[in-house]
Structures are given as C-alpha cells and as structure tokens.
C-alpha cells in the first residue's frame, strides 16, 4: 500500500472514531437532559403539593392570616423559581452542547463523504477535538426541599397570631414512673434534673434502669402533636420520640431500629440526628429551645429550633403502635450539665 493511501486509511479511521465518540457523547447529554427534565417535573410536583398544604393550613386561619399566607407562598415561589432557573439553565447548556455536537458531527460526516475529493491539507485542517463542556447537573435535594417547608405551619406564625393554632402546643408533663432513679422532678412535673445519685423508687418494668431517660406522660397513636423543650445551656442531652414498647431495662443505641427517633447534643457543640447512620447537624445557632412535631398519620417527626422555627431534621417512616415523647438529661458531670430540662407550656 502506498504511503499516501496508508495515511488516508488511518485518517479515515480516525474520523470514524471521532464520529463514534461524538455519538456516545450525544447519548450522554441526552440522558443528562432527560434526568434534568425529570428533576424539573419532580420539583414542580413537590412545589404544588407544598402549595396545597400551605393553602389548606391558612384556610383554617381565614382572613387574619392572609398577609402571612402571601408572604410564605412568595418565599416558596422564590425558592422554586431559583431552583427552576438553575435547572432550566442547565437544560439550556445541555441543548447548546448538543447543537455544537450536531454541527461537529455533520462536518465530520461531510469530510467522510468527500474523502476522495478533498486535499490532504483540507483533511488535516479539520478540528476533531472534543468541543463540548457542560457543567454538572445542579444538586436538587427534594426531600430537604419538602422537609424545610413541612411542620406545624400555623405555629410558625404564632408570634403574629397567638390564637387559632392547630395543632396547639401540647401541655406535656414528665412521667416519673418511667424515669431513671437519678432523676428528680419539679412539683408540676415540667422540669427534670439529674442528681448523680439514685433515689428510692418503686421497681417497675416501665422504668429506665441503665440511662437517665424519662418519657412524657402522654402517648400518641394518631393525630398531629407539637411540643417544645427548653434545653438552655446544657452541654449534652437527648430528646425526641420513642416507641412506647422500647426495652427500658437494657442499654441500647438510640436509633430508629430500636424504636428511637431523637436529636442529641454532645460536647456542647456537637448536634446529631440519631438516624441510620447518624447525621451531624449544623444549626444556625445553638438552639436553647427545641420544637418537636409528631405526625402519626404521615409517620414523621420533625425537629425545629423553636427560637426562630428553623428546620433541624425530619425522620420519616416511623413505625410503632404508640409513640411517647422521650427525654434524657444525660449525666450532670459535676456542675457542667446541671441545668434542668423543661417542658414549655405556652399560654395562648
């Protein structure tokens, strides 16, 4: 084979490989475009559900909440608009990349069809290097998007309303019969402290024996319930929801598999959600009062910094016959963690 023909054959093969590579890249961009469009549909669907939920909540408050309703819907629309703008921009970039690839592929096809008519200089002048770069798909956490707009929406606007709240904050009390022997309570059973020594208490299968835990005196199997717990400047604590049937005699890890859905503080600044696996939390500021919202029908429990009602974490797929508010003061460690844990009763 003459050197020219050999070179001609090699370059033809090179062009065919370039075309095949672009076809694969086109398929990749098409797949990414479909994924981005699915994100747009999902985001729109979730936004619609949240819009309906918000409107349903505000319907109970009638004209008094019209101004607040417009404000929260505007916030939701702004977040949706921002997220959709990112996704639409990404789709536009993908479409631009696909157009560039289409043009490149047409040039390569034309070169292949005219191989016998073009000069070697014209063939060598073809630019067949990859020419498309597209940013990665914008991150879209629909669950976080949904969770950040979930919870007791009417209570979030309590500071403007003071009335007509549903669910109303539950006036919880502690259940001394479930309490570890080291715990002591205020007379009205709304404050609890760990004392570093066991007190004489009746033996009961309802009592926690290994850890300084206590349950609320009310158990729930239906409906929506909200309560607030003052933790102040405590250096460590656990609180949340426990299945009424948990083993109270054993020392077990707090996790959903063992019937616990809780938040915890350790070492003054380390906040954790005891999911599987545990999730490290970074609140805007250390919460001094924590709100807990239990929705038995939805099977969720959501935690808020009750100071500004910012979302902390949501557990999904709770599964138990009955749920109890759960609390642990943790040990007092001398004088470092002696502040009582308190149940907040709100006068509306």
TrEMBL record:
Q: Which InterPro entries match?
A: B30.2/SPRY, B30.2/SPRY_sf, Butyrophylin_SPRY, ConA-like_dom_sf, PRY, SPRY_dom, TRIM/RBCC
The residues covered by the B30.2/SPRY domain are 152-348
Coiled coil location = 12-118
Specify the superkingdom.
Eukaryota
Which keywords fit this entry according to its UniProt record? Coiled coil
What the entry lists under CDD domains is as follows: SPRY_PRY_A33L
Q: Which named protein is this?
A: B30.2/SPRY domain-containing protein
């Amino acid at each position: 084979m003459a050197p020219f023909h050999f070179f001609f054959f090699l370059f033809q093969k090179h062009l065919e490989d370039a075309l095949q590579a672009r076809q694969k890249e086109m398929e990749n961009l098409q797949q990414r475009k479909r994924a981005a469009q699915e994100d747009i549909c999902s985001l729109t669907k979730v936004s619609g559900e949240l819009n309906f939920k918000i409107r349903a909540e505000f319907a109970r408050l009638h004209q008094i909440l019209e101004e607040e309703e417009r404000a929260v819907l505007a916030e939701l629309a702004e977040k949706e608009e921002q997220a959709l703008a990112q996704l639409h921009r990404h789709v536009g970039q993908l479409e631009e990349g696909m157009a560039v690839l289409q043009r490149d592929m047409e040039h390569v096809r034309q070169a292949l069809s005219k191989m016998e008519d073009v000069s070697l200089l014209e063939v060598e002048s073809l630019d067949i290097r990859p020419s498309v770069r597209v940013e990665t798909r914008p991150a879209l956490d629909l669950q976080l998007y949904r969770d950040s707009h979930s919870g007791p929406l009417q209570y979030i606007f309590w500071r403007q309303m003071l009335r007509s709240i549903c669910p109303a904050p539950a006036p919880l009390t502690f259940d001394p019969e479930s309490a570890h022997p080291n715990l002591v309570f205020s007379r009205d059973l709304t404050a609890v402290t760990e004392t570093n020594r066991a007190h004489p208490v009746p033996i009961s299968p309802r009592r926690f024996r290994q850890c300084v835990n206590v349950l609320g005196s009310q158990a729930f199997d239906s409906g929506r319930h909200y309560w607030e717990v003052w933790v102040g400047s405590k250096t460590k604590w656990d609180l949340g929801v426990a299945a009424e049937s948990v083993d109270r005699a054993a020392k077990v890890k707090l996790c959903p598999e063992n019937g616990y859905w809780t938040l915890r503080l350790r070492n003054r600044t380390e906040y954790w959600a005891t999911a599987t696996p545990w999730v490290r939390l970074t609140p805007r500021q250390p919460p001094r009062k924590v709100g807990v919202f239990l929705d038995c029908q939805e099977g969720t429990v959501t935690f808020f910094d009750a100071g500004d009602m910012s979302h902390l974490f949501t557990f999904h797929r709770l599964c138990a016959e009955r749920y109890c508010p759960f609390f642990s003061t943790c040990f007092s460690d001398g004088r470092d963690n002696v502040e009582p844990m308190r149940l907040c009763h709100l006068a509306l």
